[in-house]
Amino acid sequence: MKVRAAVAGLRMGRNHVAALAKQANVDVVALCDLDPQLAGDQADEVVRIAGEGSVRPKAYTDYSEMLERERPDVVAIATPNRFHAAMTIEAAKGGAKAICCEKPIAVDLAEAREMVAACAQAGVRLIVNHQRRLGGDFEWIRDAVARGAIGDLYLIRATCAGDMLSDGTHLIDSSLFVAGDVDWKWAFASYHRADYETAAAAGSDAKSGGGFDKLGGWRFGHPVEDGMFAVIELTNGVRVEFLTGDLRLPGRPYHDVELIGTSGSLRRSGDKDNENLFQRSADGSWEPVPVALEPSVDKIARSYEKLLKLLADDLPDSEHPLGTPHAMRGFELLMGVYESARTRRVVTRPVEQLRYPLAVELGLE
Ligand SMILES: NC(=O)c1ccc[n+]([C@@H]2O[C@H](COP(=O)([O-])OP(=O)(O)OC[C@H]3O[C@@H](n4cnc5c(N)ncnc54)[C@H](O)[C@@H]3O)[C@@H](O)[C@H]2O)c1
To answer: In degrees rounded to 5, what are phi and psi of residue 253?
Structure first.
């Protein structure tokens, strides 16, 4: 019998729809979005990708109704961040076997821990979509660092547009990944945010916003900062520096990660595999790294392939590159960074602040 999959939230979620529709042993049985037009359009996409005769997914605007009627085995959640926790827990309790939740896993540590606990209790595999781990440039960089191609890695300098919670989460995940997935020792950070009209914006779906254009200090149903810097020390001694939002390094693309080692530097400058990989030459300029990577690997499809294999082999999500151990290590660091910015102090593990520190600072918690 084929695995039954459902997707909720169909903007970023369309990438999950396409990735699931490509899997030979999956029927995408249901799609859900508050906008019914999106579900209809994506149902057409599923039939186009999976081929004539494939199951046409049913369209829903109500997530609970979709779960109850369809009982999907795999649920993809690509709704705004503030819905991730409740929707994941509902799917776990409703009989799903595997859940792929978009990043960030949640908006605060309390929610994230509840999600992981609910999934563990129900025997559900939970993965969080930091898809850059699944092949391409970052995999090549991780392997290059591990074989000593730049000597001893001692500094990662990562910069991106947007806010730390939704965009910086990729920087954190990629930095931990290339540095060998070790723990972090301490974080020190600072942020700034204009004095927006928070009361009117609080909780409004209209403030969810895709892309990284902030809508008056709000995005995905929660407040965000305008700019942040952070310094982190990992347990292997590697330092990581982040500059995000309006503090992004001038002239850098959406995402830019630089690795500085004792005998060389590598840089991934942009978001397209095989086109954005550079090394520092002897004269100090950046030159392309002459390696041939798969430029068009669908990382989300690869992630689902691995998730389906876990289901088939009855293995836990810790066996998946995007499973809860990596997701929670990165998310605790992310929350530690915000907590340091809120308290103006160095934060160490374990992070004790269970609420979203920026919301706490704004008096919203
Ligand atoms: N992994 C990545 O590279 C990546 C890239 C972009 C976005 N994301 C993540 O994906 C999520 C969605 O981002 P987006 O840019 O598509 O946001 P968006 O606000 O543009 O779209 C969200 C969609 O979810 C729908 N929605 C909202 N509440 C819903 C509900 N209760 N039930 C069903 N549908 C609902 C909305 O109608 C909308 O179509 C966010 O968590 C974001 O961080 C991840």
So the answer is: -75, -175
